[in-house]
Design goal:
Length: 229
Amino acid sequence: MEDNRQIFSMLGALLDYPDQALVDALGGIRSALVEHRGFPPVTRAALLDLVDRLSARPLLDLQEDYVETFDRGRATSLYLFEHVHGESRERGQAMVELLAMYEAKGLFLSASELPDYLPVFLEFLAHETPAQARALLGEIADINRHIATRLAERGTPYFAAVAALLPLADEAPLVDASTAACDAATMHEIDSEALDREWQEEPVSFMGAQAPVSTQPQTVQFYDKRPPR
């Protein structure tokens, strides 16, 4: 059984707001993905395409694309509880429980970061045992499939980093994912009415709307590099 902990950190980095550290690390990430045997060929090909596209663009363009991709509607949001609770009061309680789970293991977020941010959750999994990480990742598989599908529909290569989480949770890969990647310049225009419809969608289920549970103590510090939401 392959240890995916390094891969969790790399996928989290690919899904985080781009900075120079990510740009500098893309070569190493690509090499690790080529060597990793935990992905189906279609998943690995899509990931390598994403890394190559990120490597080919200026950092400022990457940052603009990231905001356009992930900060314009719930359907592609990387904040997990938005897909479960939306902006309801229940989301706040779920965040408290998730944050308590992190802190019980010595995992501390910066004051501006939210605990349901997918890259943070992946970094947490990177410090879990492989079996426990796989089980926890399986609990958000429906959300990840939903996000990856919407990203693929929009034609952004970022779908690959979310879709890659499915086989790591022993879930079926995203269907026809290999046909979804296209140049960011051909990304669909999203009008305001479409965005309104996305925010009105029914949320997908997530563990009965409960935060995940874990038992293995680890210590790591998270830092927020994203601009304020």
